[in-house]
Design a protein that fits this description.
By secondary structure, chain A is an all-alpha fold. Chain A has 2 domains: about 70 residues, no CATH class; about 220 residues, no CATH class. Chain A contains 12 helices and 5 strands. Chain A has a 3-stranded parallel β-sheet. A two-stranded parallel ribbon of chain A has the order 2-4. In chain A, helix 2 packs across helix 3 and helix 7 packs parallel to helix 11. By secondary structure, chain B is of the alpha/beta class. A 6-stranded mixed β-sheet of chain B has the order 6-7-8-3-9-10. Chain B has a 4-stranded antiparallel β-sheet with strand order 2-1-4-5, with helices on one face. In chain B, helix 6 runs parallel beside helix 7. Classes of the chains: A mainly alpha, B alpha/beta.
C-alpha cells in the first residue's frame, strides 16, 4: 500500500485530523512534503520514525530537531531501582518515624505549656491574642447559640416521648439540665470549635509555612510557638468555657420551650434544674472546657506548623486539625469521665 | 515588519476606581521579541492582564491576532486563549503534579491526540527547555531557573503563536538568566513565536529584544519605543536613566 503523504504544514490541526482518522498497524506515512512542523507535528514525526512508519526524506531542520530529541532522551540517566529493604528494616523505619513524630508533638506540648506558665515573664503579644479571641470566641457566639438551642429542643422532645409512656415527662427538665451541663454543652462547643477554629488555626499557620513566613520568623530568632502559637492557644483556652456556657444556656432555653409545650410552668422547670444540677457539675464542665479549648487550639496550631510546603499542604493540615482535634476531645472526655467517677462526681 | 500580533488602541489600564495609564497605544508584530519596560508600579503587569483578557481594560481596544479580546466570548474566547501561552512570574506550576504532568495537562484538556502522541509532545517541550531529566520531579523540587523553564514548557504546550513572559529572569543568576534568554531567542527564531516579555534585566533586554516599549504612568502610556540601542540615547531622561542605571531620574 502506498504511504499516506503528510501535509507541508504539519501543525496541530493537521495532526488532530490525522489522529481523528485513526491509524492501522503497518500504515506508512510519507514525510517528503513536510516543510514545517510545530510541537505536535514534531512529536508525531518522532513517534512515526520510532515506529518505522515514516518514509521519504525529512527536511534538514526537522531531522535535526528529531535527532536532538533522540539525543536528549538517550542522555537521560538510566533509572536506578530503589534499594531493596527487608520487612524488619521497613518496620523499624516506620517505627522511628512514628517515634519522631510523637517526640516532636511532646516537645511542642512542653514548649506551649511552659510558654503559658511563663506568660507574666515573657513579652506576650496580647493584641494577637485579643484578635484570635474575637475570631474564635466572639464571632462564634451566634452559631453556638443556634446549635445549643436546637440541641436542647431536640433532646427535650426526644426524651419526652419515652418518659411520657411512664408518666415521667416532668423529669425532662432535669434530664436536659444534667445532659447539657455535665456533657453535651461543652462537648458540642468543643466539636464546633474544632471544626471552626482548629481548622482556621491550621490553615493560617499552614499558609505561613508555605509562604516561608515561619522560616523567616525562625531566622530572625523568634520562636514560632511564642510568637504564633501562644496567643492562639490562650485565646482558644479562654474562649471555649464561655462558648460552652452559651451552648448550655441556649440548650436550657430550648428545653424550657419544650417543657412549656408539654404544659409545665417555667418555675417548675427551674425547680427541676435546681434539684438535678449541682455546682460540681458546673465546675467539672468548666474544667473540661478549659482542657478541650487548649487541646483544640494546640492541635490546630501543631497541624499548621507541621504542614508541608506545597499547595495541598494547607488542605491536609486543615483536615488533620479537625480530625485530630475531635479525636483528642473524645480521648480527654474519656479521661475526665474516669477521673470524675473516681472523685465521686 | 509582519502582521500585528497584538494591538492596543487608546487602552485605559488599571482597576475600577484606580486607573493607571490613560492612553496606551502599542503594536507588536508577529515573530517579534518585545520587552515592556517601565518603573516599578507603572502598570506593566496590569497591562499584560488586560492583553490576555484576565482583567477588562477601563477603556480602549485590545486585539490579539486581529480579534478583539473584550468582545470574544464563549467558544471564540476559548479559541483565542489557546493562541497564546503565559508564564507567570512565580511559574504558577501546579504543586501536586509533576513537571511532565504540568505540561501534559493542556494537551489532555484541549487536544484530541492519542496518549502516546501527547506524551511525546510533552517530552519534546521539556527537551526544548532542557528539563527532560526533571520530568518526574515535583515543582517544589525544582530550582528557580528550572521552575521558569518548566513554566515556559507548559505555556508552549499547545504551540501558541504568542508567548507572554512576566519577569522570566527575576531572581536568577546571570548564567541561568542567559540560558533562559537563549531559549527565548531560539523559540522566536526557530518557531516564529511572538514573545512579549516584562523585565527589568538590562542584559536580557540588550541580548534578545527586537524592540523595547517604555511605559510611563505620568505620560499616561508609551513614553518611547524602539530597539534597545536606540533607546539608550532617547530624548527622555527617564529612559536614559533606566538604560544607564542612573539613580534618581527613573521613577
Amino acid at each position: 500500500m502506498a504511504p499516506t503523504p503528510l501535509p507541508e504544514e504539519l501543525t496541530r490541526p493537521a495532526v488532530e485530523a490525522l489522529a481523528a482518522k485513526g491509524g492501522r498497524a503497518g500504515r506508512a506515512f510519507d514525510c517528503a512534503a513536510v516543510r514545517r512542523a510545530d510541537g505536535a507535528g514534531t512529536a508525531l514525526l518522532w513517534l512515526l520514525r520510532r515506529q518505522g512508519a515514516l518514509e521519504g526524506a525529512l527536511a534538514p531542520d526537522l531531522a535535526k530537531a528529531l535527532d536532538a530529541f533522540d539525543a536528549a532522551q538517550a542522555a537521560l540517566p538510566k533509572p536506578t531501582p530503589p534499594p531493596k529493604e527487608g520487612p524488619l528494616t521497613a518496620l523499624g523505619r516506620a517505627e522511628c518515624g512514628v517515634l519522631a513524630r510523637w517526640g516532636a508533638a511532646v516537645a511542642f506540648l512542653g514548649e506551649t505549656l511552659c510558654g503559658l506558665a511563663c506568660l507574666p515573664r515573657v513579652r506576650f503579644r496580647w493584641g494577637d491574642c485579643a484578635l484570635a479571641f474575637v475570631r474564635c470566641g466572639v464571632q462564634a457566639v451566634p452559631v453556638m447559640l443556634l446549635i445549643g438551642f436546637l440541641l436542647g429542643l431536640i433532646l427535650a422532645f426526644q426524651s419526652a416521648i419515652p418518659l411520657k409512656l411512664f408518666g415521667g415527662e416532668g423529669f425532662v427538665g432535669g434530664l436536659v439540665g444534667i445532659a447539657l451541663v455535665r456533657e453535651l454543652g461543652v462537648l458540642v462547643a468543643a466539636i464546633l470549635m474544632a471544626g471552626r477554629t482548629g481548622s482556621a488555626f491550621a490553615a493560617e499557620l499552614g499558609a505561613m509555612k508555605v509562604n516561608e513566613e515561619i522560616d523567616a520568623l525562625e531566622t530572625m530568632g523568634l520562636r514560632p510557638v511564642r510568637f504564633l502559637v501562644l496567643p492562639r492557644v490562650l485565646a482558644g483556652t479562654l474562649a471555649l468555657p464561655l462558648l460552652s456556657l452559651f451552648v448550655t444556656f441556649a440548650g436550657l432555653v430550648g428545653g424550657w420551650v419544650v417543657m412549656g409545650v408539654l404544659g409545665f410552668s417555667g418555675h417548675y422547670y427551674l425547680d427541676q434544674l435546681q434539684v438535678f444540677v449541682h455546682l460540681k457539675d458546673v465546675v467539672g464542665s468548666f474544667c473540661k472546657a478549659f482542657a478541650f479549648g487548649f487541646a483544640v487550639s494546640a492541635v490546630g496550631c501543631w497541624c499548621g506548623l507541621r504542614a508541608g510546603h506545597d499547595a495541598g499542604a494547607v488542605g491536609t493540615a486543615t483536615t488533620a486539625a479537625v480530625v485530630t482535634g475531635i479525636v483528642t476531645i473524645a480521648v480527654l472526655e474519656g479521661l475526665f469521665s474516669v477521673v470524675f467517677y473516681a472523685m465521686g462526681w | 515588519m509582519g502582521r500585528p500580533a497584538i494591538e492596543c488602541e487608546h487602552v485605559v489600564t488599571g482597576y475600577p476606581g484606580a486607573p493607571l495609564m490613560r492612553d496606551v497605544c502599542l503594536s507588536v508584530a508577529e515573530g517579534e521579541v518585545v520587552f515592556l519596560l517601565g518603573g516599578s508600579g507603572c502598570g506593566k503587569t496590569t497591562l499584560l492582564k488586560h492583553i490576555i483578557g484576565q482583567l477588562p481594560p477601563l477603556g480602549g481596544t485590545i486585539r490579539i491576532l486581529g480579534q478583539d479580546v473584550a468582545a470574544a466570548q464563549g467558544p471564540a474566547r476559548e479559541r483565542l486563549l489557546r493562541t497564546f501561552g503565559m508564564m507567570y512570574q512565580s511559574g504558577a506550576l501546579f504543586g501536586n503534579l509533576t513537571v511532565l504532568q504540568n505540561v501534559l495537562l493542556p494537551l489532555e484538556e484541549f487536544t484530541a491526540f492519542p496518549a502516546p502522541l501527547r506524551l511525546a509532545a510533552a517530552r519534546l517541550k521539556l527537551a526544548q527547555v532542557g528539563l527532560l531529566d526533571r520530568a518526574d520531579a515535583f515543582p517544589a523540587e525544582l530550582s528557580g531557573g528550572q521552575t521558569k523553564r518548566a513554566a515556559i514548557a507548559r505555556a508552549m504546550a499547545l504551540d501558541p503563536r504568542i508567548l507572554f513572559l512576566d519577569e522570566p529572569s527575576a531572581g536568577l543568576d546571570p548564567v541561568t538568566s542567559a540560558s533562559l534568554d537563549a531559549l527565548i531567542r531560539s523559540l522566536s527564531r526557530e518557531l516564529g513565536i511572538t514573545v512579549v516579555v516584562i523585565s527589568h534585566e538590562l542584559a536580557s533586554i540588550n541580548a534578545i529584544a527586537d524592540r523595547a516599549i517604555y511605559l510611563d504612568r505620568d505620560a499616561g502610556g508609551v513614553l518611547d519605543q524602539g530597539p534597545p540601542a536606540a533607546l539608550r540615547d532617547s530624548p527622555h531622561p527617564a529612559i536614559r536613566a533606566f538604560f544607564n542605571r542612573t539613580p534618581g531620574a527613573a521613577p
